[in-house]
Amino acid sequence: MTIKTLRQNNSIDITANLFLFTLYITILSFVAAYLGNKTQAYIIKYDLDKKYGFLKVSNEWEVLFSGRVLDWKDRIGQNLELIQVDAVIGSSEGDILYCGILQKFTLDKVLGLDKLYLYPTYRRFLKNDFVAPEEKKAANSKNKNIAQKGVDSRYYNMPGDYLILSYKDVKSINVTYYFSKEK
Prior knowledge:
Strands 1, 2, 3, 4, 5 and 6 form a 6-stranded antiparallel β-sheet that branches. The chain has helices at 3-8, 18-45, 48-51, 60-66, 136-139, and strands spanning 78-89, 96-107, 113-125, 156-158, 163-166, 170-181. It is built from 5 helices and 6 strands, in the order ααααβββαβββ. Strand 1 (78-89) and strand 2 form a beta hairpin. It is elongated, with a radius of gyration of 26 Å. The longest helix is centred in the first third of the chain and has 28 residues, at 18-45. By secondary structure, the chain is α+β, with helices and mostly antiparallel strands.
């Protein structure tokens, strides 16, 4: 069927009502976007993506770095304050441990982790991982946080606004979550 045949058969002519058609498509697009955002928020709020795989709305890195991997029932009345990342990266001089507060992260084209942005950041070499007797108490403290790294002489402060780690160079990652009480 050609356009000429359709017009002869008194079919609907979109060009006559182009404004109404454009308005219809625009409203439909906004309603679809609104409902999609509300549905995603509902799925995340009630962890439906963890229960039902077909409702997956984010990848494993977004779940890990947002704190959604945790069971929040144990954390009622607390806010996720910051996320500390410890990453081991290999070098010609030996493995280096980088510790810092996660500021942001990026994903690559296949939704794998691409880069980690850390600040403030400390590093230390693991090859001479000797703990001096006076530092043993500090090193053995539970959940040593980033603020204590400046006290430990094995760590070196990394100046700059961000330290950007490429995930392809990372051998392992440790993630620590720090919470504060709601006000």
